[in-house]
Amino acid sequence: MSAFDEHQHRYLNRELSWLDFDDRVLALAESAETPLLDRVKFLAIAHSNLDEFFQVRVAGIREQVAAGVTTRTPDGRTPKEVLTEINERVTRLVDDSDRLFHESLEPQLRDEGIIYADYESLSEQDRSWLDQQFHARLFPVLTPLAVDPAHPFPYISNLSLNLAVQVRAPRDRHTRFARVKIPPILPRFVQVPEGDEAERFVPLEQVIAANLHELFPGMQIVSHHPFRVTRNADLDIGTLGDDASDLVSEIEDRLTQQRYGRVVRLEVEDSIDDATLDLLVREMEANEIDVYRSRGPLGMAGLFAVAGVDRPELKWELFHGITQPVLADTTDMFSTLRERDVLLQHPYDSFHTSVGEFIWQAARDPKVLAIKQTIYRTATDSSIVQALIHAAEEGKQVVALVEVKARFDEENNIEWARHLEEAGVHVMYGVVGLKTHTKTTLVVRDEGDVIRRYSHVGTGNYHEGTARLYEDVGLLTSNAEIGADLSDLFNYLTGYSQQQDYRQLLVAPLQMRNRIIDMIRQEAGQLDGRIVMKLNSLVDPGIIDALYEASMAGARIDLIVRGICCLRPGVPGLSENIQVRSVVGRYLEHSRILRFGTKPRGRRYFIGSADMMPRNLDRRVEAIAPILDPQHKDRLEEVLDMLREDDVLAWELSSDGTWWKVPTEKGLDSHLRLAELTTELAGQQRPSSDEVTVE
Questions:
Q1: If we measure between CA atoms, which residue out of 349, 343, 344 comes closest to residue 630?
Q2: Is position 437 annotated as part of the catalytic site?
C-alpha cells in the first residue's frame, strides 16, 4: 500500500467533509418533510455556508497552490488535488441547487401565492410600479463605471453583486464595457405590492437591468449579465506577533486589507457570453477553476428574504424555551446555586431566564463585587453587554474579554469593546497569538462570612439570537474549585499568569489535549471501554489516532459530529468499533459533550467550547467543565441516547467516507422529543441516581 493510500485509509479530507455537511443541509431543503419556507431557508443557509467556505477555506488552499506548496494533507492529497475536487463537488452542489429552486421550490412557492417573478413576466402595471421605484430609490444610488483607456477596471468588492454591461454608441461598431454595482444596502429582492396575487419578489438586478437605458442615455444596451465575486477574507490572525501592541488597530488594518483579497470565486449566470466572461476573468486575475455558472439567481443566500415571509403555516413551529422550575421559583438565583448546580440545554431551556437572568442579577446585586466574562460573538443589540455596562455604572469591577479576532464578527466586537470601555468596563483583547473561544462568566459575591464565586461555563456564545436557534448546553454553578479555576483562567487571559494546572477545568492550549487523550487511553485499557463524543468537528489527527487505538483495544465509541469528520469509521482492524452519525434539523447542533466510562464503573461527563481540531486544542483558549451532579449526568445521557436513536434527522458515515440518511422507522425526531422532554421535566422532580460521582 502506498503512503497516499495509507493516508486515505486513515483519514477523510477536511474540506470535502465540510462539503458533505453542506450537502446534508441542502438535503433538508430537498426534503418534502421540511415545510416549504424552511426549505427555502435551508437553501439560503447552504449558500451562505458556501460563501464562508470560499472566503476562508478555499482562499487558504488557493494561497498554498499559488505559493507552490505540495505538502500533502493528513488524508494524502496535495493542495492542488484538493482544489480540483472542491471544484467538482461545488459544481454539482450548484447544479443541484439550481434544479431544486427552479423545478421544485419556485413552483411550490407560486402555488402558495409567493411568487419569484422575472421582471419581463410581470404585467405592464407592475413593471410601471417597479420603474417608478427605480427612479425614486435606485437611480440616485447607482454609479455606472466605464472601462476604457482613461478608466481602469474598477475594484469589485467581496460578495458584491454586479452587472457587466456592454454598450455601443450610435454609428460605432465597437462595444464598450461598464460595470454597475447592485447596492448591498438595498433589499436583495424587490417586493411588488399585493394585487390579486400575494407576495411577489423580483431580483433587484433585473429591475436595474430593465432600466439601464436611464444610466447610459444615448447608448445602445448590447448585453447585460450579473456576476458575483468572492474574495479571500481570512485575516491571517496567526501572523500577529508579540509586537502587535495595539491589537485593535492591527485588526482594523487587516480588515481594510481584507477588502482587497484575491478573487477565489466568480459566479456568473449561464447566459453570459464568452467575451464578457473572458474580460472578467482576465481583469480580476481569476482562473478558469474559479468560475461557477448557474441559472440564477446569483447569491442564493439572499433567499432569506423570501424565507422570512410571514406565513407561519409554511414553517416549523420553533420551541420557545421554558424556565426550569428551580429557577422559576426563586428571585435569588445565587441562593439556588448555593444549593445545587443547574444544567441548561438551549433552546429548550430559555436563555433569557437562565444565563441572561444570572448576569442581570449579578449586575444589579449590591453584594456582587466583580463580573468577568468572555465575549466571542454577541448580538448587535445584546442584553448581555447592556448588563455588563449597567454593572460597571453601578461601580462593580467588570472585566470583558472581547475576542476581536472572531472571524466575520471583528467589526461588531470592536464596536462593542469601545462601548464597554466608555462605560468603565475593563476590556481586554485576549492573548496575542491565540483566539479566546471559551464561553465563561465568573461572578464574585461578598456574602459576609465568605467571598463566593458563581460560574457559568457553556458551549454557546452569549448571543440571545443564536440561543433560540442553536442547540447548546451550559452549567451554572457555585462549585468552589470551578470558580477558582475560572479566576486563574481570567488571570491568564488578562495578565501575565503562567498557570498550567487546573483543579476541574480542562483548558486549551495548556493541558486539554493531553487530558483528553489520557481519558481515551484509560477507556482503551478497560474491558468495557466506552466513549461518546458530541462535537461540531473532529479533525485533529492526534485525537483521531487515539480513538483508533481505543477501538482496536475493544472500546466501543459513538461519535455524534454535526459538521466535519476526518475519522473513517468501521474500517476492519482500525475503527470497526466506532460509529459516526450527524444530526441536522431545525436547530443547529452546537454543543460539545464528552462522556468516558460506563455506569457500573462511573461515568465522566464534560461540556465546553472546544471541538477536536488543531486550532481549538493548540491555538485557542478553550475551557471544558466536568458535570458532577448525578442527575445532570443522567440528563446528558438522555440527550446523547436520543441523538443516537434519532431516525428522522440523522445521517451515518460509512467506512468509504460517504454519508447516508438513516431510514425512518420509529419516527424519532430528537429536536421534537427534546422539547417534549424539557416540558415534561419542568413539571416533576426527578429521582436521584444511585451512580457514584466520579471526580
A1: 343
A2: yes
